[in-house]
Specification:
270 residues; 2 domains; five-stranded parallel sheet; elongated; single chain
């Protein structure tokens, strides 16, 4: 089972760096205080996961993160009976742990999970805030400090990979995008240690390449990839090599498109 679960308390870590670009932090805090589920929409690598980590630490709440995928089932979230020490015992999944203990459960790219996952989420996303565990006969009521947050990338939506309107309308929703150039420059500089002026050139390059989305590229360059590129440059790797490894190869396998991207790199950095 390729399930990524992380639980951490405020006391165990510092607040992850996040530079707000609007009222998203206030919106998260209001949704948490009013016990409302939250849906984050935006392209891959634009900061959704970092934002949730930042807010969980800021609120001092445990964070349970699940990276959704095609094989993720409702049992992966809620739990299952496992053989331990010769005995069959029930083991809570990350969603059940978050409901029992209180905290924030974050389902990243929720549309990638199987359809039975959304069925489990429905009673948690209305005024009931309940989690039925059919296998144990329990009906768990979420405590006040439980919050459900999900995210997905609308750019990948198609008829088989989308949230039904009946599911979307159970959430307070916010749209994320790549940060404004100055904010993105500061993020890349802080995360990589590279000088801000050199990071600004990377951000300008990213803006040019993002304009190719939907033409030669399925997805634009993420802020995460810019951080990777800046990190390699800061470590001493030549700019062209760092750019090829982080801004070109991850985006496409098409040799002609790669050549075009490298021409843009050359035009930016000489």
């Amino acid at each position: 089972m390729t399930l990524s679960t992380v639980a951490a308390s405020h006391a165990d870590r510092e607040i992850p760096y996040y530079d707000s670009v609007g009222n998203e932090c206030a919106m998260f805090e209001h949704a948490y205080a009013q016990r409302l589920p939250l849906l984050l929409k935006g392209p891959t690598g634009c900061g959704k996961t970092r934002f949730v980590s930042h807010m969980a630490a800021r609120l001092g709440k445990p964070l349970f993160t699940v990276s959704c995928h095609d094989d993720l089932t409702a049992a992966d979230l809620t739990g299952r009976f496992l053989l331990q020490g010769g005995e069959t015992r029930w083991v809570d999944g990350p969603l059940t742990r978050a409901v029992r203990e209180g905290g924030i459960c974050y389902l990243d790219e929720v549309v990638e999970a199987r359809k039975d996952v959304t069925v489990v989420l429905h009673p948690l996303t209305d005024d009931r805030r309940l989690l039925p565990l059919e296998r144990t006969g329990e009906l768990l009521e979420a405590p006040d400090d439980f919050m459900l947050v999900v995210s997905y990338n609308p750019g990948y939506q198609h008829i088989l990979k989308s949230l039904k309107p009946s599911t979307r309308q159970r959430f307070v929703a916010m749209t994320f995008d790549f940060p404004p150039p100055k904010v993105e420059r500061d993020i890349v500089a802080r995360e990589s240690g590279l000088e801000p002026d050199r990071c600004a050139a990377l951000v300008n390059l990213a803006a040019s390449l993002r304009a190719m989305k939907g033409q030669d590229l399925e997805e634009g360059i993420s802020t995460r990839l810019l951080v990777y590129c800046a990190t390699l440059i800061q470590a001493g790797m030549p700019i062209r090599d760092a750019a090829r490894a982080t801004l070109v190869e991850p985006l496409t396998d098409d040799a002609d498109v790669q050549e075009g991207l490298m021409e843009a790199v050359q035009a930016t950095f000489g």
